[in-house]
Specification:
The chain is mainly α and about 140 residues long. It contains 6 helices and 2 strands; from the N terminus they run ααββαααα. Strands 1-2 form a two-stranded antiparallel sheet. The chain is globular, with a radius of gyration of 14 Å. It is an enzyme of class 2 (transferase).
Length: about 140
């Protein structure tokens, strides 16, 4: 059974994200789009907000969990108390959901943030949070290789 399903990586992928952000020239518009994405990521049930899934070093509380599917792909799920961080998490999920661990470690997860015009606008603490999320995703993928 899939824990905490969400639309990212299935209904909302990289191309959809590029389209959503393509006409957002101002940072405020991209910021609003991030918040819209955060609203599409369903809240994690309290039972899944376990301490071992909580990432350290983030400004807001962030949870990132995963499960290995029978076909060898990974399902990731997560949540954050901060809307911007939750939007950042949604962008990461769109890139990694349903991928094999081997595919995930080959991805440059930061590249999409640069293409969307988000990475350079993040505060130092949010940028640190993004780095922490990316590092955690890569560590999880490496567990299965």
């Amino acid at each position: 059974m899939m824990l905490a399903p969400h639309p990212f990586g299935t209904d909302i992928g990289t191309e959809q994200l590029l389209n959503l952000f393509s006409d957002k020239k101002q940072w405020e518009d991209r910021y609003r789009q991030l918040i819209q994405l955060s609203k599409l990521l369903p809240p994690l049930p309290e039972a899944l907000k376990q301490q071992q899934l909580e990432l350290k070093g983030c400004e807001n509380r962030v949870w990132l969990g995963h499960q290995l599917n029978e076909d060898g792909t990974l399902h990731f799920y997560g949540d954050s108390e901060g809307r911007i961080v939750k939007g950042i998490l949604a962008i990461l999920l769109a890139q990694i959901e349903g991928q094999t661990p081997q595919s995930i470690v080959k991805l440059d997860l930061m590249q999409l943030f640069d293409r969307l015009g988000i990475h350079q606008q993040l505060s130092a603490s949010r940028s640190q949070g993004l780095d922490s999320l990316v590092n955690t995703i890569e560590k999880i993928a490496l567990l299965y290789i």
